[in-house]
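Sequence in, structure out. Go.
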Amino acid sequence: MKKRIRIRRIMKWCGLVLNLLLIAAFFTSLKYSISLSCEGYALSSGYGCLFATEARTRAPLRFEARRLTRMEMFTKKPMSSSGRGMWYVVTPTWIPLLFAAIVTVWLWRSDRQPKSGCVECGYNLTGNVSGVCPECGSAIEPEPQVP
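Output:
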């Protein structure tokens, strides 16, 4: 059970970091064109979109960043493939952001345990006065009595 909780905790924080990176990528792509190519494939962002393409060169690893001109910011040009067999995929940045946000919110919300649950196994301890979890046998701290 502890391993599962740890994996969920890692997934929650990775989802949060992924969302922050996608938000940064969106706002950055409005003013800059950023491209990373490796072994014939390229990932790039620009115009508020993410692009996955077949690269024109087979360089081992190449990173490019350039500021978009004012004219380029307001005119989206379709990508053209100059060679046969070239492909590209274009998606607005908000689509992967929305998907990642939904999954992350679900992970954060579903991880909540009732206040009367066992810390180790999550067993509902409402009405338990013995001080021991009947499911896993761990000791339970008594809840403070409110007058």
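Check: The first strand starts at residue 32 and ends at 38. Residues 78-82 have pLDDT under 50 and may be disordered.
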